[in-house]
Amino acid sequence: MKWLPRLHLRTKLIASIVITSVLAVVMSAVALVRYDRVQETSNVSEDMKILAGIVANRSTAALIFGDARQAEANLKALGENPNVLMACIYDSGQQVFAIHHFTHLDQKPCPEEPQESNLTIEDTIEIYEPIELDGLAVGTLYMSLSLDWLNERWQQQLLFIVMVIFAVLMFSMVLAKYLQFLLLKPIQKITKTAQEITEQQDYSLRAEKEVKDEIGDMADVFNGMLSKIEDETARLYASEEKFRQLATLSPVGIFQINLQHQITYVNSRWSEITGINQPLANLEHWLGRIRSEDRRRTLKAWSALIQNHQEFVVEVGFEKHDEITWTIIEASVLHDGKGEVYGYMGAISDITDLKNAQLQMENLAFYDPLTGLSNRRLFQDRLSKAVAESKRRGTFVALLFLDLDQFKRINDSLGHDAGDQLLVETAQRLRDSVRETDTVSRIGGDEFTVLLSDVDSTHGVRHIADKILKSLCQPITLKKQTVINTVSIGITMAPTDASDANKLMRNADMAMYRAKAMGRNNFQFFSEDMNKEMMGYLEIEKDLRHSIENNDEFIIFYQPKIDLLSYQFIGVEALIRWKPKGKDMVPPDRFIPIAEESGLIVPIGKFVFRRSLMQVKHLMDIGVWPENAKVAVNLSARQFSDPNLINDLNETIEMTGCPVDVIELEITESTLMDHVENAIFTMRKIKQMGISIAIDDFGTGYSSLSYLKRFPIDVLKVDRSFVMDIPNDVSDMEITAAVIAMAHKLNLRVVAEGIETKEQIDFLRSNRCEYGQGFLIARPMSAEDLETYIQRPIQVGLPSL
Amino acid sequence: MAKGWRHICWVAFVTTWLVCGSASVFSELNTNQIKSAYLYQISKFVFWPEARKQFDHFNLCLLGPDSYQGNLQKMVGRTVFNKPVQLKAISSLNQATTCHLLVLSEPDTISQSSLQAWLKKNPVLTIADGSQNIEKAMVVFVLEEQRVRLHINVDLARSAGLSFAANLLEVASKIKTGGSS
To answer: Which is more confident, A538 or B103?
Structure first.
């Protein structure tokens, strides 16, 4: 029966109808014929029994009176039925009394004696009818009846049945054909539509609904499915088109790579950036073009992506005819509908301009152009790194702070040139006195530092300090005059004295002053007593704790910021002032470091945030606060890494009712660079609240461009140290210009701090720096004064527009 | 029960004997025996008026000397339409009014006309021997080809209010009816 399911539906349909009809006819015919045979036999038997009864009765007298001729004559009456073969009469002695044959053929004798049963039907019907008179049996009548007529009847019936079967066969074939047409045609149409769709990929085709039965429903369902596919296809096409447009117009190079590392898709911008024109190059070929310095890092990032599906952002350069094209490559994995990785997709952006600006800025920012030594910024960075390294390795770092004893005198008497020459010579001698690995920096006019790493003991440090003192006190010829210059050295050890770069600098500075006080041309080691004595550290900390409990000793001052193009007031920076009870005002740079170190900065910072929001809210309520103006509040490193930061901010905002869009948080660059990933996470949270973020003191840390791009920031504040020297220091001016240019490339606005002169404002305006802040514009002021300030005419005290 | 069973056996025996006798052992039985047996059988094929069936007995009357040589006596004790057979020897027709069956042993002694007139009043089946007596007896025993055969006068019987079963007529070798035979 395995072949059965393989048959065509058409065949099955026809076969089932034909077989069913014929079977029905045959079965009913057989049943009818059987019934007819039984009925007919019974009818004939009944008739013959009645006839036999009549003849038997009639033959009584002939039997009794021994009239055999009369008996035979009576038997002839049975011949009325042509099927009667023979008849006999037996007397009471069971002897044959009379016999009559109705056929000439096959003339059998009468059975030897009559049977008990009066009717048997086998090949013939045999009837034994008793002959009775007055209840007494006087003889028996026997007759046998041929059944040939039944067979003839059967043959006729068979012929008729065959004819009927043939007719039924014909009729059922026609019916099946029609049903097949009725059933299969709609199905075939659906199949045909499906085939056409497969061949032509045209999902607008629809199956025709011809009937309203289940097949009609099937057509509906099929069409519904087609509509869905058509919609999906259209959506997919639209989405692809959108992607194609985006990719074509994108200023970013886009690429897709399959699991075999073949580049399967690139947009035209990709080719422009990479300089690879042939399509479908492979990944290795492309990465091979990366400049050797970046290659290892890039390959590592790629293998992390391929093996661990870790997306990456790398900054790499491509070398081409001695020029480097700087790029940022970002890539991540592509998942298909089932979540399986089927390739990688990424973008490459050309950041050459940005990178060049950064490189230029770094150069300017980190080296002293006169001596070629690292400047204060680079030095501070190296110091931090050296301290971290020493902690890890269990060694010491020595920081030597040097100040030339007679520099001002020489400068004044022999001129700037001589001064510069002295500085260059001093730098050279210092370099000669230390190892290659040690860092010598010029951190100010006549201030130098020497960073000795991997130091075992103070003994070695003393030796070097002696060597420096000896080297520097050698005579030097300046403008044909021999002069002797000496130096005072303050020394501090890390991590023994401190681990923090700023604190170490302070320590060394203190020790240097001690050396000066001890008569110059000597060195002094820092001691904790020295520190405490000078800083009054403990006292300040105690006062701070006291003041935090009584908030009225902190006052918030506001330094206005203005738009440098229109001079419009655009906001303020909230600054804290502290006047402990019964004491003088303590400057922020004196108490803030102590607050930072002791952790008291967190409650102080909260206070500043709360108080300034309340005061700004008040200004808003009385209608003084201009629309779009912002209040900037500093967020210290401690606060920034405080896990409750977001909660605290939310609470304060809710409590004061101050709208979030006027709030800006200033975070120093160095704070952000400590833990970049965490910083990004926290910043995103802050941004989600609707608060703007400004990077404070920008230019003093090492913001990698790739990080800077990822920081969700709005504003860069150029550090006052750059602005301060405009227009005297050309390099600071260049740095400032470069910072502004870079910020604009990153779509950030720039605020210049510490503006004190008209020249500075002119320079910043010419470099399109958006905003400014400084004494020239306005000094920090109380909330009451700010109310008046905002309402007064804008140009007062500024160069005309 | 035992008596009933014996009675049935006896009747069966007699019937068998009679029938066999009539068919094959005929020649060995004397004619009187056969006629006597026939007499009894004939009574079963005759229809008397209903009133005559109400009698207590089936009366078999013999007018004249016993031509059956005592064989008629054998009928006594048997029944016709459930009435016991009673044999009566009578001397005149006047005594025969209650008879069912009247055997005329000497028909010549009775005038044809008076008999026919009497019969119109009395439904009595008359029986005689010899074909010449067909006008006096409704059933006449005749010897033909060594066999006892019947001649029946249907007209005479009808005039007496009697009729015959067709079966009986079929076995009669001569039937007188409607003025023909």
So the answer is: B103
